[in-house]
Every structure is written in C-alpha cells, then in structure tokens.
C-alpha cells in the first residue's frame, strides 16, 4: 500500500511538473512571436518615415514568411482549430507574400 501511494504521488508530481514546463514553453513561444511582431512593426514604421518603401515591403515579406510558417504549423496541429476566417487570412497573407517577393525579391 505504501509503495502504491508513493508511486502515485511521484507520478502526479511528474505529470504536474511536465505540464508546467510544457505550458511555460508554449507561453514563451507565443510571447516571442508577439515581441517579433512588435519589432517588425517598429522597423516598418521607421522605414516608412524615412521614405524607404522598398525596404519596408521587403521586411514585410520576410515577416509574412515567418508568420505564415507558424500559421501552417498551427493549422496542422491537433491543438488548434482554425476557423474559415483564419484560413482566408493565411491565404491572403500568402498571396501578398508572393506579390511582394515578385516585386521585391529577397536580398
């Protein structure tokens, strides 16, 4: 009986610790995505102010590539249930990325 209780407690502690670590990693990845988007927007605004639309559009294409990749990975995950609106947003982003890459090829 004592070994069973010890094993059960050890299992529950291990499962709890694994869940906490997994949640931390998930939250960290989401936070880093938000910080990356904020940095991108700051750069875009500065480039627009300096009258560098080609550089801005090239940077937007690069940003789109990263977020399209994240969206595609999320859509194929069992943890995400994208709506039809989400799918349309990704399609429009891919169209814009293709347009920008044709006009301003990556450097």
Describe this structure in words.
It contains three helices and no strands. With 107 residues, it is an all-alpha fold. Helix 1 packs antiparallel against helix 2.
Q: Topology, pairings included?
A:
Layout: H1 2-49, H2 53-75, H3 84-103
Helix pairs in contact: 1-2, 2-3
Task: Summarize the model shown.
The protein is 85% helix and 0% strand. It has 107 residues and is mostly helical.
| H and E order | HHH
Multimer state: single chain
In what range is the share of β-strand residues? under 5%
Helix content: over 70%
Query: Rg from C-alpha positions?
Result: 21 Å
Distance between the termini: 67 Å
Q: Count of helices?
A: 3
The biggest beta sheet reads: none
Name a few traits of the molecule:
single chain; mainly alpha; 3 helices
